[in-house]
Design brief:
Elements (H helix, E strand, L loop, with lengths): L2 H31 L5 H24 L6 H23 L6 H21 L8
Helix pairs in contact: 1-2, 2-3, 2-4, 3-4
């Protein structure tokens, strides 16, 4: 696979990831602004939105793969988690705790699951 195709694959998966987050978060913030949803529900839905976006990113990463969809999902989760981890450590004055480790582990598992599902929807001929 040449570099341009690989960059296109990563870019599409990243745009899907960001699109899911932006669209669902926009509607969630509107519901929260008009007090339709309480704060605890908003926190739970934000986590579910992040899980859906990791699932979608892992899915679209592995659609173009021929085998090992779990590895494509793992690559996607690793790339995105590096950015999230750097933002958390450098941008926010907060240390890394075991709760954060469990959070990232759940994100990795969700992305791997998306990759495993996406490999069955491949674009190549069998």
């Amino acid at each position: 696979m040449n570099y341009l195709k690989r960059l296109k694959k990563y870019s599409i998966a990243f745009l899907i990831f960001l699109g899911i987050i932006f669209i669902f978060t926009f509607f969630l913030s509107i519901f929260h602004y008009f007090d339709v949803l309480p704060y605890q529900v908003v926190v739970g839905i934000k986590f579910v939105i992040l899980l859906i976006s990791f699932l979608g990113g892992g899915f679209f990463m592995s659609v173009s793969a021929t085998k090992k969809g779990w590895l494509e999902g793992l690559k996607f989760a690793f790339i995105i988690s590096i950015f999230l981890l750097l933002f958390q450590i450098l941008g926010i004055d907060k240390s890394f705790h075991i709760k954060d480790l469990i959070f990232y582990f759940i994100l990795f598992l969700t992305s791997i699951l998306g990759g495993m599902i996406g490999i069955h929807f491949t674009l190549h001929e069998k």
